[in-house]
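Predicting holo structure, zinc ion bound.
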Amino acid sequence: MKRTGAIVNTTLITMDPQRKRAEQGGMVWEEGEIVFIGENQAVKRWAQQKKLPLIDGTGRYVFPGLVNTHMHLFQNLLKGLGADLTLEAWWPSTIKPAAMLLEAKHLQAAAVGGTLEAIRGGSTTLVDYMYAHPQEGLSEVLIDAVSQVGARLMYARGYRNTGADYGFPKVLIERTKDVFSEINRLQRDYEEKQQMVSFMLAPAAVWALDASGLMDTRGFADEAGIPITMHMFETKTDNVVCRERFGVKDALSFFKQTRLLGDDLLAVHVVDVGARELDAFLEYGVKVSHNPVANMYLASGISPVIDMLKRNIVVGLGTDGAASNNTTDMLETMKITALLHKTAALDPTAMTADKVLGMATIEGAKAIHMEEYVGSLEVGKKADFFVFYPDGCGKSSPCHDPVASLVYSSGQQSIETVVIDGRTILDKGKFVDLDEHEAYERQSNMARDLMQKIQEA
Ligand SMILES: [Zn+2]
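Done. Tokens:
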């Protein structure tokens, strides 16, 4: 009965299509699925009859778990190292040496640490775009580590099939057919995990794939029914590379030519774009992962998210890797998203708390084709949620409006309980199955070990 329970005396911010708030009510979940949302008395009766563990939600609010649509968990070992650099200088100095020397023990520690940190910030679904494969078997290490902590994972298997002329080391360049056969194998190996572990194809960026690499990606995606995610238009480099290397007018022409665009594509960043690109995104149904902290940290620019939303393009939120953010915390990303776009538009109504929460939940779920399962609190969906306790820390107390409070004044200490797939992972501020501080100490040790290996290389 571990994936079963009920909560009463609370307010549920459902994020369902009507944006319903169930006040003074509760919710029941069984076998990992939400089976009832409604009045306290009905929930209490249900819990009594079935002898379910009951949470008292007095003074608390229940939100759907946040969906982080773009991360690189291995970068948790690199926090702070990439400070004050441009994207083009940051990659070779910070990411490349670590990606080349990454071992299973480093990745395991980073993935556990980064996942614990993400869950503390209310995330329940993580898209990990794992592109550092200097040795075989790292995909399994990542998937097993995230699963051990208990988060729902969309594993985006990253790869590059070219790019030596842009400074990519040979050890990180793979043949697409080897990548695809690994994904086929992983799908078989993790089949019983169903919606807890899903897969995406993650070609790294336009300077890391040639035309045939992208066309092969489209072919495999169509054949296997696996969605694609890729760093796109992060800076001006995409357009420059496409002109110089492929002799086309711009990156959009190249993406059309290689048939990459489609409603199964999640484009990450999308900063250096204008009306032409956004119209094409709408036409093809391309979704966007907005990563404002990374864009600000690397000064890549401001993604025109308001224009995207006006066009009804699906936009989810991501933290990106900790090397360009320094945390996997989505609470911080929500606040920064709101502030950035208010300032960019010189209009405080341009990006509201409710819009931001939508991007961090149901829109993020749509961006990764998981909206049938997660992103809102509705009967039939997975029991993925967190309990927000405003008086759990000074930052979020007092609370007049739970959505505004969560977006603008919450912190990890305001997230009291996190349930994923009906399992309680964080219970009243404590991880149930894992010693959190031991995991962070191990992460620090592994970060030092990796840095030493880089220095010795
Ligand atoms: Zn990224």
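The domain at 5-64+385-429 is CATH 2.30.40.10 (Urease, subunit C; domain 1).
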